[in-house]
C-alpha cells in the first residue's frame, strides 16, 4: 500500500507495512550517484519523538551522509520533521545522530574511507522485526557523469524490453 505523507510543503513516498509503520524510507539518489561496494545494517541513536516521526513517514535520507568523529560514526543531514503537538521542540531537524556499530566494523570501514573517493552513505531507514529503527549504510564510490548516463540508458532499455515482453504475452 502506498501512502503520501505531507509535511511543510514536502511529501515523502513511503510503503506502509501491516502495522501502519513505513516499511522503508529509501535514498533513491544514492543509487544514481554512487557505485555501492558494501552494505551494512546499523542501529541508530534516536529519541522518542524522532521514532514517532519515522513511524509517520516524515523522514528523508536524500541529502544525508555519514562521517567519523573521534572514531565514532555519525549520520548527518538526515531530515526528521518536528512534532507539531509538542509545547517545545526537543530535537533539531538535521542534527547528527550516532550510529551503533561494533568496534571491528567501525575500524574496518574507517580504513576504507581513508582511501581516495570512498565514502559512507545511508541507503534506507526501516523498522526490524523487533521494532527497532535500523539504518542500512553503504560503502560507496562516486560515479562519473558517463557512468550515470550509461546506467540510465540500461534502465530504460530494460523497461522497454519488459514492456515489449508484456505486450507480446498479452496477445
Polypeptide structure, described:
Residues 1-18 have low confidence and may be disordered. The chain is globular and about 60 Å long. The two termini are 30 Å apart. The protein is of the alpha+beta class and 171 residues long. It has helices at residues 28-33, 48-55, 103-113, 145-170; strands at residues 2-7, 10-16, 22-26, 34-44, 59-60, 65-69, 72-76, 79-80, 97-100, 118-127, 133-142. It has a nine-stranded antiparallel β-sheet with strand order 1-2-3-10-11-4-9-7-6. It has a two-stranded antiparallel sheet with strand order 5-8. It has a single domain (2-144), classed as Small protein B (Small Protein B, Chain: A, Beta Barrel), CATH 2.40.280.10. A hairpin with a 5-residue loop joins strand 2 and strand 3. The protein has four helices and eleven strands. The longest helix has 26 residues, at 145-170.
Question: How helical, in percent, are the residues?
Answer: 25-40%
Number of helices: 4
Question: What is the name of the CATH topology?
Answer: Small Protein B, Chain: A
Name given to the CATH architecture: Beta Barrel
The secondary-structure class comes to: alpha+beta
Q: What is the mean predicted local confidence, pLDDT?
A: 78
Calculate Rg over CA atoms. 18 Å
pLDDT under 50 segments (min length 5)? 1-18
Gross morphology is globular
